[in-house]
């Protein structure tokens, strides 16, 4: 047994805390330098003031936080939560049967279908959104088809509506819901389901009493992976959404871009992070209890 | 029973239809003889010709591929090591906080993350090179990798196969190489696939962190798209799609099924 | 067996993959050819302009694009280093100076600087005259001749209920607030909060009619029939009209803004001499004319006008006639307080 082998075994055995820390070190390094310090910089910035021409004035103030609770920003928050919730729900309801199918029914096609699920996202989502614009446009494919088959007489402007935003979000986040669902359904032991059948459960009972509860971790993971990025999403609205459906991500990015008010943008970011981390923490506490 | 089964199949097929509809549109309009491809004006191959002559677009594509590969690779290594330590080792202090921290890249609005990283790197005097961008992408990919790999390691832990190997006299390292790693590989691969996708898609962070002359596909497409995508981009996407399918085909033909090992 | 090989291969690939780009990067960095890093709007330079320069002077131009002034500004502000030259709007010049982003161009060193018409050098923006005018144009209304029974004549047409959901506005503080002030007949340099309240009200009132706020993708929407009227910058519309002859441009009767985009040298440029050569090249009459013919904005280069396509030169939409010129306001110079008021008002409109 070489000494290298022994050293690696020591590392992987992890009987000393140092071993865990060493294994975690690369990830920690990344997190510190590319996340903690930059985010810390933004948090510090959120207490600064916006000076002439958007220059940053290093004077401690809480005015950015006070501004964030201005009533004019509340509708943006509610709208964002509503869109994120609607997207998550749609993805979950639409995606669960797909995940189920992939796990239990797809047979030898399963791997192909799993990869197939991801393939559309290897072209740029920008191109996909653009294709949706061609489909949804006033002179687009959907309108032409509906008119051709007599469902419509006048084209409808689908683009730049809440419908288009929801469609874009669902399109983009569906795989992020389905994959965790699949991963957790796959772990449900077949023997347990068969046992339920043996005990006389019909398909639906077996599903609701056994499969669904056992797949709940996947449901939660899928929801988290969809809901959270939705809150910060701004490209979808930028491309498919209209002026009246301004979301939190757009508000924040506009502070950094258009309004050139970085301290305020940082304060909004800080608040969003506090809300999300707090929410996750509460959820974990609840889960443990 | 079989009717129900068929119903589900049809439902899933239509969901795939939904996911692939934009691709079909993209393929069709890559042959469209109009610069702004909203209306069909006849068949042409000129966009493919233009594409292969467009050095900028080709190099943007290469950059994006390299970048996604690098980011997925880094994230896979970091994520595997971290997940292993978190699952197999005794919990250390502040583990909960570390867990939460790992998820923060998901929650940060990308613009804020981009501005934060850019400001920090510039202050630190670090030149915005390819590695800076790849590392930032790896950070965004990390939560996805950890989520995928950790779930697998936990279920392996429960099956205590590694313990069995060690009972048979294997060292930790041997057990890791012979048992854990191969069994975790499907999860690592699926994490890497997700990472690859996330990195390949990323526009906002890239826009900020990309240094001079580093133009990724999304950056290029975004700037072209503001003025209407030329079908050249559709043609490029079609080529990428074909390449992806060929790769997958090769993979299916020569490699093992990713989940075969974990079946038992 | 094959199973093991692929796995090991995959492992190796996973370990080596991160190193490969670093290696490629190192190869790239090894060369120190002469180069200028140029950051510009997309669709804002002739196709052959830069390649011809490289061919002639042997200086490579690395050309990066932005499609949105705010994005460009945010990126440069955050400290993105390495660009030598950038094209910015006149109103940004004082900001760039205030934030120490730019260095004045030593215009004395430029052979061709006197080709420029004097009236486009804007000392009120640029007391050091450290930027070089690149193109100028107007902000007006683009419309689809086929879809509109009668052409729009006034900014108020963009507020007309009958065009609901068929209108797009530029996503830009300068243009929207500026035009609103113009419509309300308020001075552009006002700092009266009451005036800004009125401006906000006017723009918020229009919001239900507006399909999109956009600084570039509206062109696509015009072509595809998604919208029929748009607030636009002159040249972009003329570029688009090459593909869709139904599109036309009008300068509203209330008048509009005349703006000048300028070449600006960024602080910390490492290729100053070559950047100056590029600027000098862009100022050459034939080059400037070919460039203007291609992007269809007006050239501030007086000596270039004789090489400009006569069709463009005679088109009052591109080069407004003397009488029309009286109706055009130059962009006002805003002090920090005023520009904060403009930004704040615009941000409030977007949120409303």
List the helices and strands and how they pair.
The complex is a heterotrimer of chains A (289), B (264) and C (352).
Chain A: H1 3-13, H2 17-45, E1 49-50, E2 56-57, H3 63-68, H4 74-105, H5 110-118, H6 125-136, H7 141-148, H8 162-187, H9 190-198, H10 203-214, H11 216-232, H12 235-240, H13 248-256, H14 262-288
Antiparallel strand pairs in A: 1-2
Chain B: H1 2-29, H2 46-53, H3 55-88, H4 95-107, H5 110-123, H6 130-159, H7 161-167, H8 172-201, H9 204-209, H10 217-225, H11 231-254
Helix pairs in contact in B: 1-11, 2-11, 3-6, 3-8, 3-10, 4-6, 6-8, 7-8
Chain C: H1 2-16, H2 19-30, E1 35-41, H3 49-57, E2 60-66, H4 69-77, E3 85-89, H5 93-98, E4 102-103, E5 132-144, E6 167-169, H6 173-183, H7 193-206, E7 210-213, H8 218-224, E8 229-233, H9 234-241, E9 247-250, E10 256-266, H10 272-283, H11 285-295, H12 310-314, H13 322-325, E11 328-330, H14 336-351
Parallel strand pairs in C: 1-2, 1-3, 6-7, 6-8, 10-11
Antiparallel strand pairs in C: 3-10, 4-10, 5-8, 5-9, 5-10
Helix pairs in contact in C: 6-7, 6-14, 7-14
Overview of the structural elements:
With 289 residues, chain A is an all-alpha fold. Chain A has a single domain (69-288), classed as MetI-like (MetI-like fold, Orthogonal Bundle), CATH 1.10.3720.10. Chain A is 74% helix and 1% strand. Chain A has helices at residues 3-13, 17-45, 63-68, 74-105, 110-118, 125-136, 141-148, 162-187, 190-198, 203-214, 216-232, 235-240, 248-256, 262-288; strands spanning 49-50, 56-57. Chain B has 264 residues and is mostly helical. In chain B, helix 2 (46-53) packs across helix 11, helix 6 (130-159) crosses helix 8 (172-201) and helix 7 (161-167) runs antiparallel to helix 8 (172-201). Chain C is α/β, with parallel strands linked by helices and 352 residues long. Chain C contains 14 helices and eleven strands. The model of chain C is unreliable at 1-8 (pLDDT under 50). The chains are: A mainly alpha (289), B mainly alpha (264), C alpha/beta (352). Chains in contact: A-B, A-C, B-C. The interface between A and B is large, with 98 and 95 residues.
């Amino acid at each position: 047994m070489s000494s290298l082998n022994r050293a690696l075994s020591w590392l992987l055995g992890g009987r000393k805390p140092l071993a865990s820390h060493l294994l975690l070190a690369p990830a920690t390094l990344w997190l510190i330098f590319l996340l903690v310090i930059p985010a810390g910089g933004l948090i510090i910035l959120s207490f600064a003031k916006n000076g002439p021409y958007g220059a940053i004035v290093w004077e401690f103030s809480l005015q950015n936080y006070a501004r964030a609770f201005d009533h004019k920003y509340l509708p943006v928050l509610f709208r964002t939560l509503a869109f994120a919730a609607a997207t998550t729900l749609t993805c979950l309801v639409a995606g669960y049967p797909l995940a189920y199918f992939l796990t239990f029914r797809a047979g030898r096609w399963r791997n192909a279908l799993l990869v197939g699920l991801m393939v559309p996202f290897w072209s740029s989502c920008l191109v996909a959104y653009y294709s949706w614009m061609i489909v949804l446009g006033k002179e687009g494919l959907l309108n032409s088809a509906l008119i051709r088959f007599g469902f419509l007489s006048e084209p409808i402007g689908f683009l730049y509506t809440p419908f288009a935003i929801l469609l874009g979000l669902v399109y983009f986040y569906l795989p992020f819901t389905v994959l965790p669902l699949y991963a957790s359904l796959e772990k449900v032991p077949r023997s347990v389901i068969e046992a339920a059948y043996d005990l006389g459960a019909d398909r639906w009972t077996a599903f609701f009493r056994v499969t669904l509860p056992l797949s709940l971790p996947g449901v939660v993971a899928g929801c988290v992976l969809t809901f959270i990025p939705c809150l910060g999403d701004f490209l979808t609205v930028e491309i498919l959404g209209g002026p009246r459906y301004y979301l939190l991500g757009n508000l924040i990015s506009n502070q950094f871009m258009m309004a050139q008010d970085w301290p305020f943008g940082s304060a909004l970011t800080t608040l969003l992070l506090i809300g999300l981390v707090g929410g996750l923490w509460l959820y974990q506490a609840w889960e443990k209890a | 029973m079989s009717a129900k089964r068929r119903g589900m199949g049809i439902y899933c097929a239509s969901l795939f239809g939904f996911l692939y509809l934009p691709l079909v549109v993209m393929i069709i309009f890559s042959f469209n003889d109009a610069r702004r491809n909203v209306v069909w004006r006849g068949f042409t191959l000129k966009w493919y010709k233009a594409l292969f002559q467009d050095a900028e677009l080709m190099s943007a594509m290469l950059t994006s591929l390299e970048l996604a590969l690098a980011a997925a690779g880094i994230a896979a290594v970091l994520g595997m090591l971290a997940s292993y330590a978190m699952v197999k080792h005794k919990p250390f202090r502040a583990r909960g906080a570390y867990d939460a921290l790992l998820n923060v890249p998901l929650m940060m609005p990308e613009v804020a993350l981009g501005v934060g990283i850019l400001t920090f790197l510039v202050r630190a005097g670090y030149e915005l090179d390819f590695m800076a961008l790849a590392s930032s992408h790896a950070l965004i990919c990390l939560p996805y990798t950890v989520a995928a790999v950790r779930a697998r390691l936990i279920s392996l832990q429960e099956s205590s196969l590694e313990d069995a190997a060690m009972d048979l006299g294997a060292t930790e390292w041997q057990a890791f190489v012979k048992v854990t790693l191969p069994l975790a590989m499907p999860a690592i691969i699926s994490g890497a696939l997700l990472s690859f996708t996330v990195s390949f898609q990323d526009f906002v962070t890239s826009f900020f962190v990309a240094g001079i002359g580093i133009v990724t596909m999304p950056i290029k497409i975004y700037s072209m798209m503001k003025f209407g995508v030329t079908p050249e981009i559709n043609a490029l996407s079609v080529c990428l799609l074909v390449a992806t399918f060929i790769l997958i085909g090769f993979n299916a033909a020569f490699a093992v099924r990713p989940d075969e090992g974990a079946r038992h | 067996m094959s199973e093991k090989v692929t796995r090991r291969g995959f492992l190796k690939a996973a370990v080596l993959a991160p190193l490969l780009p670093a290696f490629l990067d190192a190869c790239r960095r090894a060369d120190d050819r002469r180069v200028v890093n140029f950051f510009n709007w997309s669709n804002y330079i002739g196709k052959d302009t830069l390649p011809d320069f490289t061919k002639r002077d042997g200086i490579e131009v690395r050309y990066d694009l932005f499609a949105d002034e705010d994005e460009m500004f945010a990126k440069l502000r955050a400290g993105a280093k390495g660009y030598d030259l950038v094209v910015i709007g006149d109103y940004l010049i004082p900001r760039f100076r205030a934030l120490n982003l730019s260095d004045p161009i030593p215009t004395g060193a430029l052979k061709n600087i006197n080709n420029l018409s004097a009236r486009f050098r804007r000392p009120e923006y640029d007391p050091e005259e450290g930027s070089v005018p690149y193109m100028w144009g107007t902000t007006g209304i683009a419309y689809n001749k086929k879809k509109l029974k009668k052409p729009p004549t006034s900014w108020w047409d963009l507020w007309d209920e009958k065009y609901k959901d068929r209108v797009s506005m530029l996503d830009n503080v300068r243009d929207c607030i500026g035009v609103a002030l113009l419509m309300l007949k308020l001075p552009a340099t006002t700092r009266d909060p009451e005036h800004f309240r009125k401006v906000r009200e006017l723009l918020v009132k229009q919001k239900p009619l507006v399909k999109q706020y956009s600084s570039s993708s509206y062109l696509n929407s015009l072509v595809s029939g998604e919208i029929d009227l748009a607030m636009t910058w002159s040249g972009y519309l003329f570029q688009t009209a090459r593909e869709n002859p139904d599109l036309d441009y009008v300068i509203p009767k209330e008048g509009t803004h005349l703006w000048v985009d300028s070449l600006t040298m960024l602080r910390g440029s490492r290729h100053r001499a070559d950047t100056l050569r590029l600027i000098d090249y862009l100022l050459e009459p034939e080059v400037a004319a070919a460039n203007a013919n291609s992007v269809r904005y007006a050239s501030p280069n007086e000596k270039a006008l004789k090489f400009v396509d006569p069709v463009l030169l005679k088109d009052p939409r591109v080069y407004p006639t003397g009488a029309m010129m009286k109706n055009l306001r130059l962009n006002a110079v805003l002090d920090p307080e005023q520009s904060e008021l403009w930004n704040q008002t615009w941000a409030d409109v977007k949120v409303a």
